[in-house]
């Protein structure tokens, strides 16, 4: 029974995937209730919803076959603080009259369960976010990205000139370390679709980058923060090994360009006064990214896994971080570890939730 | 360093020591002569000093060096840390010495190894919500391997495997500099200390996104608590809300501490290490950061790894640089002891005392270590050296006992000062020095009331040792020397009659009489106030009176029957090690008859006495004279000495208590060579305040008379209760 939705309610963003059937027969069209039609039309004919909802058109998966139906998979996101408005809209569009199950994952599935029931007259089917994440990753990788590879890596990550993005074949994915960077970070060791464990996590994630940028630069969107970062110079903010030792610290084999102390230069009043907001945004981005890379690398070593897949919305339009992760992993592991990335970054939990819906049907 | 200059230097200290020398008694009337001659001599010992100066007062520091630099051979000064570069020219110009820069990390680790090896109670863990925030660790004889996490502006994680082998295994750029730099940007607060103060007042939950903010509660499938931070600064992702400085500082502190803790745990796991020492300016003397780091290590290691801190962490680099410079003197071949009189101790962390202590520490904070004449090692007979704790009661933990003992030492202080002055009747400044001693020790006691953990775990032993150190500081090396001399003389006169009466007894009666004699001898203890009062007022108080004071059997702790059974049924012991206590009646009429009996059974005896004076405890050099005199009267002792079946050794200690993990190496070698299978420890200081629970690999006897009614009461007995503890290790 349509509609087919998968919902992932995170700490900062809500991710929604919607399967739009393209093989609707005239008969079906005839029987399709008005409410359902209006929802389908609303979602597929717009790319923005309200002031904050956005459909990532470039990620749309076309001519997908799901449960014997052909159609397109749409990827939509909006901030978690607009969740009440979303539920309100669902209620106005009489979503509950469709008698469908709404599968949701992420912390918000628990947090907003009550609101869905009381405001939207909807019963949520709550799903574990890590189960959904892994299911989603494996599924999307298997169907590919409209004929292209879903998974990619950076070749020559340590060489800025020759560094390029290349497809990666993830046919035999196991074991892999899955690093999901949302507001916070979860790190999973995956040995098979059913066999995985959460190794650790860190609170220094996308939310930290964005939160600190808001405080330091007064920016108000993630895009703005990244834009600023792309124009900044973090070496004005950070204290590098060469700032302390005049060059490499040979006793410990540390290169002069390595960051010795993030924001270390900001201990000095003069230097605090001479940096720009862009520099601060860049330093924040570098700090958080390097730290995630470092923890991921240690986990990979501890778990004896050499492929590390980074996902999550922190990486959306964030080439700086992706290249830095690729570089850091390669450099500090002396080429032993490979950083991999996926095109649908933050949507895997939502995809997983959709798949659970279809499995249960 | 960034804000403090830490200076380490070596000096020779001239101080008075008491020496005893046997008279040549040939042809003299020995009835009216004292037993031996006592003289006070000058002795030169080596001492290591560590002093802190604020960098603002670098000139004062350099003046200080100039004034103290007596060795004209010195051409080079070793320096490490950022200031070694910054102040190089100034130092060279002012002192006329060449600055030799040493690698920071090498110095840090050298210093760390040195304090771990030489300072008891150097290491502590932080414990939240406890009466005392610091829990001191026993020194593990094997200090390697360990992980040192140095949190300066960045974080360095170093694995230390041996004295000279260490490796940088990782690090992080998120460290103290991040807290300071980012904190200054966020809160417009410039100073590190002020940032920490802000942090201690803030609520991080206003800034951080917690698991419950995402889930509405806990994330139950993973067992993640709702209060866990899901995203640091996750709530500040908005341009239109103001956040308080305090809250942001707190959130930043948590973020950084958690991150460091997590990385440290990951590295510890990969390298299979469970000891992590934390240092660097982020940690140094800041309970706030110790608390958050400890929390993080507990959380990420699930309690498997312990976050450890060092009392003298701030000095590690200076100590290391010093050791580099003193390599030809090889300081590591010696043992060192912390001098409680000259060291200022760990600063208080309680908010009330904190500001005062901080100012004080800026200008006056020092550590002194005395080079001991002989290397100290573990008693080879300790069952588990790494688990051995000498002290019976931890006064840092036990507030009631702490109050009692501090008061007890305060009350006894006037008497001790008086006796010290009286011991040097010919010295014109004895009174003045005694008063200075009184004042110094009084101040130490007051410091300890405020901050019991200032010198590590507070124990009766540390209180006694501190008093000895303070007495020495003011040139009262041996206030009881004359008392001991007199009592030794008197006791020697009684020796033969005591032996005769013992020899007249049947075997079983004799065994009991020997034990009773040993216990009665132990009553003569000038360290116990109850006893010293009696001895002061009744100079004729003798052996028989002491016996009559003893508790009747069954004793408070009584395994005499098992001991008797062992003597009756078992083969003679191969070799007994006896730790003697007091001079006079105790050693001569108590211990020696007992030794004589053991020798007659075919048991060899190692008699161990203190190297230096403490109260009226018999010293090694006194024991030599006393033994010589007894040998002249007693053929059993004489032949045992000649055949080396009775051996006199020194313990390496000058304490009224006994730390079996720091004993003279010669003693340890002998114990091994002679296959010692019985250890006898006597006296309240050695067998009750310390070693009451010490577990040994061989049979042991712990004997004492409790000469303190509070302690007796605590153990469920009365004053002059007897402890007779015979222990056989379980197979």
UniProtKB/TrEMBL annotation, chain A:
Tagged with keyword Phosphoprotein: yes
Key words of the record: ATP-binding, Coenzyme A biosynthesis, Cytoplasm, Kinase, Nucleotide-binding, Phosphoprotein, Transferase
GO terms, molecular function: ATP binding; pantothenate kinase activity
Transmembrane segments: none
Gene3D superfamilies (UniProt xref): 3.30.420.40, 3.30.420.510
Pfam family, one: Fumble
GO cellular component: cytosol; nucleus
Top EC category: transferase
GO biological process: coenzyme A biosynthetic process
Stored InterPro entries: ATPase_NBD, Type_II_PanK
EC number: 2.7.1.33
Pathway the protein contributes to: Cofactor biosynthesis; coenzyme A biosynthesis; CoA from (R)-pantothenate: step 1/5
Ribonucleoprotein keyword on record: no
Localization, UniProt: Cytoplasm
Reaction equations catalysed: (R)-pantothenate + ATP = (R)-4'-phosphopantothenate + ADP + H(+)
Family: Belongs to the type II pantothenate kinase family.
Subunit comment: Homodimer.
Protein name, UniProt field: pantothenate kinase
Organism: Cathartes aura
From TrEMBL, chain B:
Gene Ontology molecular function: ATP binding; hydrolase activity; metal ion binding; pantothenate kinase activity
CC cofactor: Mn(2+); Ni(2+)
Domain Damage-control phosphatase ARMT1-like metal-binding span(s) in chain numbering: 409-717
GO cellular component: cytosol; nucleus
Location (main, coarse): cytoplasm
GO BP annotation list: coenzyme A biosynthetic process
Pfam family, one: ARMT1-like_dom
Keyword Protein transport: no
Localization: Cytoplasm
The organism's place on the tree of life at top rank: Eukaryota
Catalytic reaction(s) noted: (R)-4'-phospho-S-sulfopantetheine + H2O = (R)-S-sulfopantetheine + phosphate; (R)-4'-phosphopantetheine sulfonate + H2O = (R)-pantetheine sulfonate + phosphate; (R)-4'-phosphopantetheine + H2O = (R)-pantetheine + phosphate
Keywords annotated in UniProt: Acetylation, ATP-binding, Coenzyme A biosynthesis, Cytoplasm, Hydrolase, Kinase, Manganese, Metal-binding, Nickel, Nitration, Nucleotide-binding, Phosphoprotein, Transferase
InterPro entries, sorted: ARMT-1-like_metal-bd_sf, ARMT1-like_metal-bd, At2g17340_3_helix_bundle, ATPase_NBD, PanK_long, Type_II_PanK
Family of the protein in this entry: In the N-terminal section; belongs to the type II pantothenate kinase family.
NCBIfam families: panK_eukar
Stated role: Phosphatase which shows a preference for 4'-phosphopantetheine and its oxidatively damaged forms (sulfonate or S-sulfonate), providing strong indirect evidence that the phosphatase activity pre-empts damage in the coenzyme A (CoA) pathway. Hydrolyzing excess 4'-phosphopantetheine could constitute a directed overflow mechanism to prevent its oxidation to the S-sulfonate, sulfonate, or other forms. Hydrolyzing 4'-phosphopantetheine sulfonate or S-sulfonate would forestall their conversion to inactive forms of CoA and acyl carrier protein.
Assembly behavior: Homodimer. Interacts with PKM.
Protein name, per record: 4'-phosphopantetheine phosphatase
